[in-house]
Amino acid sequence: MKKTRLCFFALACALCLLAQSGLFADTTLSVDKAVELAISRNLSLERSRIDALALKRANDSRWNVFVPGVETSAALSRANQTPPADSSPYTASGSVALRLSLSPATFTGMKQAAADYERGLISLEKARTLLELNVRKIFYELLLLEENIKLTWQNILTAEKRVSQAEENYRGGLVPELDSLSAKVSLENLRPSLDEQIIARQEQLDLFKMYLGIQPEENVHIAGSIEPEILPALHTESLLPTALASRLDLQELRRIRDVSILNRDTTKQSALLPVLSLGWAYSPALSDPFASGRWNSYDNFYDNGVFSVSLSLAIDNLLPGSAARNSIAALEDSIKKQDSQILELTRQAGVEIETLGKKIDKSRKTIAALLLNAQLAERTYALTEEAYRQGSRELLSLENAANELQNARFQIAREKYTCITLILDLEYALGLSFGTLKEK
């Protein structure tokens, strides 16, 4: 028995360790894996899914407008006036009543539920795509920050070498003591910059974990590089017609307009058209229910039930300036404003897509120029460093060359990140899946 308990205890400990290692183990993520995690774990997207499920439930059950309302009741009554001597003042009764109201608004409301569900699906897809865009941007921003940290660390190592070289030249009498001290000051000035970059990266990493639904304690590493996709020449004017049809924000706004039109039609039909009401009731009653044997025969019961058909119309709604007509007019105004929003967003989309295309072309040319500039900066630094070793150049010249090289490398990394984000923004603006432009 004791051995059995020990086995169970060991098994429980092993399971706990496995669970803990799965929760807090190091995780290496590619950009696609990060997007996959975000889509499955993000809390904001989960709320959007719940909204879509609620609309689906309403759409799937829209047929229930044809289910009649059912009421049941049972009563025992006593007459106020004293009945004849051979009669009882008591009567027992029960009823089952069915009611169903039909109008043109009934069928329009069913269409409205279907259209609202389609709008919800578009909104869910829009939220998913926007989440993917943000995750991809933060992913590449983390890569940029890591690249900057590496560059700064390399600069610190280079500065340490400069300090050693300055001290050696000072001891050899090639440079004054001021050069040695200046090299040490330059080295110490780099360390706070490194600390700031590490803190900035940690802040973005925490935000990244929140998007992905990862526990703050879990260690996350990202695997990737800041290299923009090689795209063919962009002709945004040829992509614009496709974009106007596939952009999710335009689709969502069009579907909202469709729902508004159906809502207006439902309101108008409910207020201005007659309503057909069908009713049926079965209402058996029994007098003198306390008499012996009265409940034994169905012949003792009589039915007060009825079947009714009625047609009703609210006349006051037909009057000019009535509350119903004002509501309809307000819905008409809302539809007109939505038409204006669609037109405005369509124009903005065209300008946005054209601007992004131009910015991408400019960014690619800038990257080519910066790469050439970095090569020149590297060559300049190498020559200046050699001259400093020989004592023909001052420390200030070497530090200026180092700063120029650091700035050139940083500019390349930042411009590559800019180009990547511009491509992502263009694919989002065109309503395309991310990576589609590379395939075209």
Structural class: alpha+beta
- Major sheet: 6 strands, antiparallel
Name the helicity range: 55-70%
Number of helices: 10
Report strand %.
5-15%
Number of strands: 8
Principal-axes geometry comes out as elongated
Radius of gyration: 39 Å
Which runs of at least 5 residues are low in confidence (pLDDT < 50)? 1-24
List the helices and strands in order.
HEHHEEHHEHHEEEEHHH
Question: Which keywords apply here?
Answer:
single chain, 440 residues, alpha+beta, six-stranded antiparallel sheet, 10 helices, 68% helix, 11% strand, elongated, disordered N terminus
Please give a structural write-up:
With 440 residues, this protein is of the alpha+beta class. The protein contains 10 helices and 8 strands. Strands 2, 3, 5, 6, 7 and 8 form a 6-stranded antiparallel beta sheet that branches. It has a two-stranded parallel sheet with strand order 1-4. Helix 4 (104-171) runs antiparallel to helix 9. The longest helix has 68 residues, at 104-171. The chain is elongated and about 140 Å long.
Short description:
The chain has 440 residues and is of the alpha+beta class.
Write the layout of secondary structure elements.
Elements: H1 2-24, E1 27-29, H2 31-41, H3 43-60, E2 69-78, E3 90-102, H4 104-171, H5 177-212, E4 220-222, H6 236-246, H7 248-272, E5 275-282, E6 284-287, E7 301-303, E8 307-312, H8 323-389, H9 395-430, H10 436-439
Helix pairs in contact: 2-4, 3-4, 4-5, 4-7, 4-9, 6-8, 7-8, 8-9
